[in-house]
Request: fold
Amino acid sequence: MTKKITIEPVTRVEGHGKVTIHLDENANIVQSRLHIVEFRGFERFVQGRPYWEAPVLVQRLCGICPVSHHLAAAKALDVIVGAGTGNGLTPTGEKMRRLMHYGQTFQSHALHFFHLASPDLLLGIDADPAIRNVIGVILNFKDLAVQGVMMRKFGQEIIRATAGKKIHGTGAIPGGINKNLSLAERDEFLYGADPLNIDKMIEWAQASVDLFKAYHKDHSDMIDNFAKFPSNHLSIVREDGAMDLYHGVLRAIDTNGKKILHDVDYQDYLEYIGEEVRTWSYMKFPYLREFGKKDGWYTVGPLARLNTCDFIPTPLAQKECEIFKAYTHGKPNNMSMHMHWARLIELLHSAEMMKELLNDPDIMGDDLVTKGTKQKEGVGVIEAPRGTLFHHYRINDNDQIDMANLIVSTTNNNQPMNNAVRMVAEKMMTGHKEITEPMMNAVEVAIRAYDPCLSCATHALGKMPLEIALYDKNNILIDKKRS
Amino acid sequence: MNKSKLSILFYAYGNPGRMDDGLGNEFVERFELWTKQQGLRNFLFDSNYQLNIEDAEEISDKDIVVFVDASEEDIEDYLLTEVDGSSKVSFTTHAASPGYVVQLCEKLYKKKPKVYLLHIKGYEWEFKEGLSQKAEENLVKAIEFIKEKFQYPEKLL
Reply:
């Protein structure tokens, strides 16, 4: 007979999630599950719509990461309009998209670290919830909070300049882009008054990596051992093995670093990746077909990307990457809290990439679109801030979408998030019959490390209730908490 | 409407691809057009999917800020309420509440603009563009209300 604890939803995570933890009569954990109410209606919704609408339509999915969906859809449609996969665009088309993407990654990572994760890290997981929030961070680390705000703002301005507007951006179109960057826009980003210029962003990004490393030095036991478990890792990488968040081939490695998906073309992703449906969750569980449902699951996102790539093609981030990899002696890093470290290295890389792109004259070119021979089907994959994002479309003879399949980053991380919850639950809740605030928050910290966007997974409208409930051995609710 | 020198920002948030969730965005589009026709240059406008931390900086140099959002609450058609930094900090997601943005502004920039939230009642939230008929009616009423209310903005301080 078991007792069940439910935590739903998870604070500071978008969408709607619920954690249930089953205890036996001795209060041992016998099962824990992260439930997410995934709504798959969007794939049906786009059926019948003209294919060229998709990059704008998909932004209806989520107001948190619309740029990632915009670009993944555009990449899939590049294939359909015959512009190739990733390398078929004009230099201006590709580089404008890259700038948009690195701007999105930069602002997303800055938001996550400074305003979602830092309260836990800087004030302590078990700190009073009344102060363990961003206001508490402001009171104790005001400069840091201001930096977070301005880094967000810089990234948002990059998005506005490349996508055209904040809402329903239209920058990326099938086969390219619909605008270049003007000289004035470029100069503002390069040489704008402090702090809104790229050199200041790089300086702050480097400082944030240093801040994490200093924190890690003093709290290595918690950072290294909290929700640590072996995992496969998957991402796209550039063909030479470099980190590339915009385009590349699919690579996966196992927990020992052995390559198990050998840099394959993502157009063929269905040959390699399956999605398992489990009765207790609406969110699917992706897995590598070759290794089956039980062993084929994988982690995506910053930690996975640092693990799969051979190097980072910008100097400051590469230096940090070397330190990161040296910490595990070149073996894959499976420490959940190191996701934050990896995220900050990517923050630095994104800033460096933006500077490189802003200094490239192609960004102001006039050749924006590539045309080719139309295809019936296309797949677009991008490394969204939270991990690998798949968009797959097929069209009919009337140029209407007749099939769409999306695997969002949060869905890819379904099993690892479940594992993280279980690790924490076993450590914090075994032997207890009530839920305490530190227990609740520890579970949330584990999930937050993955920065899940449940809005993407559920397509909800940003509603975010939180509830924790405890069930006894007969599955009867005996305790319930909401935050 | 008088020629006030106050800096007034109307800031909508919502997703216009989700029917009535775009009520605020549509409000801003229409009201901005009207203020331009009236030559009211001190009225500023912005629109986004949701509020976020950088908006604390954006509101820090304004005299009056009106956030505009679609509402599922039990209201008749529209409602204008005051927002202050004492509102519950509800930064529980990747988005932020108006009260949270105000609080951030106060803490980070030591500025305290007068902030209101205009709630406009919505009814349908599907993956479609365009407002429902009842939401459209509420929007028209809300615009007329704001035109009247901002005849003399100094009174709102």
User: Anything to note?
Assistant: The beta strands of chain B are 8-13, 43-48, 64-71, 78-83, 114-121.
